[in-house]
Amino acid sequence: MILSIIFSVLSLFLFFCQLFTLTKGGRFYITGIFQILAGLCVMSATSIYTVRHSEWHLDSAYSYGFAYILAWVAFPLALLSGVIYVILRKRE
Question: Which residue ranges make up each domain of the chain?
């Protein structure tokens, strides 16, 4: 999850850099790749937590909680954001 936060912040900074340096009609490939990497990091982190949940919480009274559901919601949104960045073209 920390890697996904780092990739998302890098994606934001790269977007601003590309916004001012990219030529008209150019695509935001680097920004999109970093955002897709962030989405894949979210997916891998939540998948690992799903598999290892019973080992980390020995008492069955624990539930996954709202942050777990929020992470699964963030995964497709981050991937969608990355795809939109790749498709997006710069206008003047």
Answer: 1-54+62-87
